[in-house]
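Entry: Molybdopterin adenylyltransferase
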Amino acid sequence: MTDAAAAVRRAGVLVASTSAAAGTNPDRTGPVISQWLQQRGFTVDLRITADGPEVGVGLRQLLAGEPRLILTTGGTGVSPTDLTPEQTAPLLQVQLPGVIEAIRRRGEAVTPLSVLTRGVAGFAGSCLIVNLPGSTGGVRDGLAVLDPLLEHLLEQRITGGGHGPRH
């Protein structure tokens, strides 16, 4: 594999959890996301940070490594420290609100609380960033939504080609 091909398969996972960052609670979502990404051929840089402005610092650090994808988990609710969307949105040049809407719809089939997630999704340069909820169920819903979209999104952003089949 060439260096360019390897670069296309780098991903970051940013867990926004003050308690996990402090070591008082285990991170249950980062490993789920990391495993999913590894199964799709990505090398993963997993980081845990406190909620709030630290999320923006973590995102910028991950972006410096030029990944193709960053998935965050946590910090998308309504708590005063849930600032993941506010830290992510300024980094995005292209927003993908439909991705987040689909994640909310999928979760709503299980719990009405899924509509409270305020995540954002889009591209920071050529890197796709998606905010997933901080629950394992919300993460599973988000990954299920991303599964059929991910390769198409990444290909579109790099090459501009690959318009999928129309129904």
